[in-house]
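#onboarding

Welcome to the new folks! Below is a worked example of what a typical request in this channel looks like: someone posts a single protein sequence, and someone else replies with the predicted structure as tokens. Don't worry about understanding the tokens yet, we'll cover that in week two.

Example request:
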Amino acid sequence: MSIVYDHSRRHAQSVPGRIAIAGFGDFEVARACHPRITTVAVDCMGIGTAAGELLLRVIDGMRDGDRPPAETVLIPFRVEQRESS
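Example response:
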């Protein structure tokens, strides 16, 4: 995100006029930039917890000789609309 942002500033490409920028993770730097960066805010703790639980189920299943079925885990998110888009 910051590489694109820095490049656009060095080459006088207006954000969001000529280029729109969006990030992922809603890190503090997105709020500190000017213009502030639009970003997708996710539950990082929820992603880690879900991944860990899934991994433990797979390990337990392999110990029992089973192969757990593929699984989709939905983690909530929201788009933080800011000035960069």
